[in-house]
Structures are given as C-alpha cells and as structure tokens.
C-alpha cells in the first residue's frame, strides 16, 4: 500500500455526482487532514532527527567508554609494572646496603683485630722494656754496690758472695736491704 502524503491529498480531485457531499465541507476537511499530516510529518522528522542525534551520541559515548576502559587497563598495567620495578629497585637497594654493611663490618672487624694485635705488641714491648730496664738497673745497682766501699772496712759484699749467684739475684737480695726502686 502506498502512503498518502499531504501533497497527494491537496491535489486529489473527486468526480461530481448529483447527490454528493458539500464541496466546501469536504475541502475544509481535506485542509484539516493536510494540516494534521504536515504537523505529524514535521513531528516525525524532528523525532527521527533526535533519534539520529541520540544514536550518534550513544555511539560517541560507547567509543569514549571503550577508550576509557583501554586507558584504565593501560594505567593498571603501567601501575603494576611501576610497582614491580619499585620492588625490584627496593630489593636491589637493600642488597647493596647489606653488602655495604657487611663490608663496613668486615673493615671494622679487621681494624679492631689490628688494634688488638697492636695493643698486644705494645704491651709486650712495654713488658720487655720494663724487664730490660729492671735488669739494667739491677746490674747498675750491683756495680754500684761493689764500687762503694763498706763503712766498716770490709771488702765489698760482691767479692764475699758465693760465685753461684748471678748478678741479678745478688742485686735483688741487696735491693731488699737497701734502696728499693719500683718500676711500673
């Protein structure tokens, strides 16, 4: 069936009959029908334009939604990669710090061991110096006691002492009776 347009109605002519309808009334009715159809056609065209606009906007929003979803996925992947990279970097920094700390500890341990050895050498050297000084002083004291004549006219005790005593032993025995020298 063919659609009737307002133009079709406007150009439509009817045959004349004897007992027909009032022409003015039919023309008026046709004018009203034409006007109604034109209004409906305009309204329909406006609705179709609005539908086309809405479809275009929906298409645009769907494209935006897809773009946003892709952007979110990309952002999530990037965030995951940044996190993984940060964790790797943190682990690397921790490992470097641990290695540096172990090196420092090793250096300090070696320095402490060196200091202990140096202290031990210094103690041994001091003890040896004390011993040598004590021996030297004892020897000098023994020499002094032999060289100084006794007040009662007897020969020095060193000559009267038995030969089995060493100068250090005789000096120690003499020291207990005479002046004492303390060496620290």
Can you describe what's shown?
With 184 residues, the chain is mostly helical. Helix content is 79%, strand content 0%. The chain has one domain (6-149, 158-177). It has helices at 6-11, 23-147, 157-160, 167-177. Helix 2 (23-147) crosses helix 4 (167-177). The longest helix has 125 residues, at 23-147. The chain is rod-shaped and about 190 Å long. The N and C termini lie far apart (137 Å). Residues 158-168 and 170-184 have low confidence and may be disordered.
Per-chain topology:
Layout: H1 6-11, H2 23-147, H3 157-160, H4 167-177
Helix pairs in contact: 2-4
How many helical elements?
4
Overall pLDDT level: 82
- What's the overall geometry? rod-shaped
Query: Which runs of at least 5 residues are low in confidence (pLDDT < 50)?
Result: 158-168, 170-184
Main sheet summary: none
Please give the domain count.
Answer: 1
Percent helix among the residues? over 70%
Distance from N terminus to C terminus (CA atoms, Å) equals: 137 Å
Structural class: mainly alpha
Determine the strand fraction and express it as a percent band: under 5%
Number of strands: 0
* Helix/strand order: HHHH
Oligomer: single chain
């Amino acid at each position: 069936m063919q659609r009737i347009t307002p133009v079709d109605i406007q150009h439509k002519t009817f045959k004349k009959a004897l007992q027909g309808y009032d022409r003015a009334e039919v023309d008026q009715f046709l004018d009203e029908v034409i006007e109604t159809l034109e209004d409906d056609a305009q309204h329909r065209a406006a609705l179709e334009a609005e539908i086309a606009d809405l479809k275009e906007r929906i298409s645009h929003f769907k494209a935006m939604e897809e773009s946003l979803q892709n952007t979110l996925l990309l952002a999530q992947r990037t965030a995951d990669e940044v996190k993984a990279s940060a964790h790797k970097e943190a682990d690397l920094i921790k490992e470097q710090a641990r290695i540096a700390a172990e090196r420092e500890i090793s250096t300090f341990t070696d320095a402490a061991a060196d200091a202990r050895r140096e202290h031990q050498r210094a103690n041994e050297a001091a003890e040896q110096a004390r011993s040598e000084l004590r021996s030297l002083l004892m020897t000098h004291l023994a020499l002094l006691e032999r060289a100084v004549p006794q007040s009662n006219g007897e020969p020095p005790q060193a000559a009267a002492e038995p030969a089995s005593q060493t100068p250090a032993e005789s000096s120690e025995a003499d020291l207990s009776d005479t002046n004492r020298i303390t060496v620290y």
